[in-house]
Amino acid sequence: MLPNPIPELAPQLKQLRLSGILDSLETRNRQALEGKLAYTEFLAMLIGDEIARRESKKFAMRLRRAQFRTTKTLEQFDFDRIPKLNRQLVHELASGRYLNEKAPVLIVGPSGIGKSHLAQALGHCAVRQGLDVAFTTCAALTQSLNAARATGSYERKLAALARVPLLVIDDYGLKPLRPPADEDLHDLIAERYEQAPIIVTSNLDFDEWDQAFACNRLLASATIDRLRHNAYCLELTGPSYRDPRVPPPSKKAPQDKPGNASK
Question: Which GO terms describe its biological process (predicted)?
């Protein structure tokens, strides 16, 4: 019987950082012996295991870097609650259509309707397709840019946000944009315009978006004009996910009828 080479191979595979092969080596070796596989078939299986491990690791890292608030996916999205939503368009977007076009996706609707879920689900799809994604609220985004200005790293921060393959901005217009937040948002949108895709959610109707800019309507017009150019617009209407649950009616104890009182 030939000696078992696995103990000798293990440290070599670790040195080469081929953990995917190391983890499945015994199983694949047994399959090769039982199936009388050719050497090339055995090697192909091992290489496939290593590629799968590396892709899984990259996916997990991209998911962590995205900083989604939840792990909401498109498979979990309840389309039946929003019957007027264009499902075909949503699935086309999930396939990466807007990513290739470097086009914005704008999602509006009342609070609790599922805007953030849908935005994060599309971001999750992009992560699956191998893209780096950054998720943030509009307030947190402008605060981070202002904080970078205070430390002299504003340009570097702005450039980093401009380079992210997909940027998801949640809750646009939830808080009024005052200087320098309005200018910072405009600069970022201008940097990404026709260069990189962006997803924006808002409680405001599309014709109310300029109202988020509290002081400078000219800046609002320039920013929104870039956002809406060639954008895919999704309007969500329906019941809120956050509606309180109505408790079942309490059962009242039967009352004695007149004349039945105990004597």
Answer: DNA replication
